[in-house]
Design goal:
Length: 147
Amino acid sequence: MAGIVKGDTVAAMLPNIPAMVEAHFGVPMCGAVLNTLNTRLDPDAIAYMLEFAEAKAILVDREFSETLQAALDKVTIKPLVINVEDEEYDGPGFEIGEVRYKSFITDGNPDYDWQLHDDKWDAICLNYTYGTTGKIQKFALRQQAQA
């Protein structure tokens, strides 16, 4: 779907809403790896994670659009950005993606033949901890040097 194949990374920058739950099941069911991003991180940290994970797509709530847009401005490979409409959120933000989540899901193949992973060692998620900070700082310094 959308060119996502087994082993690709799909990132999510979402609050605890139904789309996040769906991503936890749907992304691994197509063989991809889910990378949930901490919504409290700054653009440098998010950019580092997107680059390091080689994210092919990202689900984003407009609540985090400013941070994600700043992060996307720093990455060399641009993932497909999918806007998720959070019906409970009425604060500031804007759509930054090429497609809306509901359209993306609706356009999917309802007869998709998902498979269990062949190998129990196949990754289904990628998580970063606070220990990533040193690498994030190096990434930020490299970005500043290139500017």
